[in-house]
Design goal:
This protein is an all-alpha fold. The chain contains ten helices and three strands. Helices cover 76% and strands 3% of the residues. It has a three-stranded mixed β-sheet with strand order 2-1-3. Helix 2 packs antiparallel against helix 3 and helix 2 packs across helix 9. The chain is globular. This is Olfactory receptor 1052.
Length: 313
Amino acid sequence: MCTTVENCTQVTRFVLLGLTEQEGLKGTLFVLFLFIYSVTLTGNLGMITLIHTDPQLHTPMYFFLSVLSFTDSSFSTVNTPKLLENFLASSQSISFAACVVQMALMSLHGTVECLLLAIMAYDRLTAICHPLLYHTFMSQRSCIQLVAATYTASVANSALLTGSIFKLPYCGPNIINHYFCDIPPVLRLACADTAEVEAIIFISSALIILFTVTIILASYAYILVTVCRMRSLAAQSKALSTCASHLAIICLFYGSVTFMYAQPSSPSSMDQNKFVSVFYTVVIPMLNPLIYSLRNKDVKIALKRRCLSKLPS
């Protein structure tokens, strides 16, 4: 085992084992994932277009939703095209530099997603619990600053994680048991002690998850107390309906991530993790715009208005 980059031959390419090694399934999976990816891009880009062209949706909540849609479409684009390519190509390899970029972008968008969900919970807290001060707290400037801070923190976190992982020497083997350059399978290939890097990853991930989950839980606890104090059932229903879509997305995202990372690491868990990864990197980005469009009255009205405006008079 080499301990420095200088005394070993550095790996220049990694081989991705992919989602499955069964040749008979690859054609079917290619069609399935191509469909999912198409729906993801259509849904998220359509949501962004609808929000930015409909004046009724020019509110902080929908501004954050448009940023979430951009993040979801980008998140999916980082790994799905490579997954589709690997279903068709005989050699499922990726260059060292491309692996670094892919991991950096996956870390970036994953962090952005966590922070955005927390910001959206705070937005609902302000709207329901402090309606008279809502536009003061959530002004256009404040919303832009929150998104800018989110991306700044996410870039810093991604740079820290990716830099720590790829400063280690990689001299073989070069086979990644995954369909993209995820942190755990790549770290297993390092030709050096990874304890320090694993500690950095654990602390960074724990801080982000604890920070965002605390904000989300505290926000919804405060919202629940406020809703229970409302005397009107109609007001209670309206308040809770604005939170339903956001809560559904939170449950899907954190549920799949927790399921994947909370279980003990084992050779069999790596194969299981690949399929769980599909859910939060490919399926959830497709579901988010569908959840908001199907469960949100304002979005459905705006979509109907948009469709009617396209009809010939």
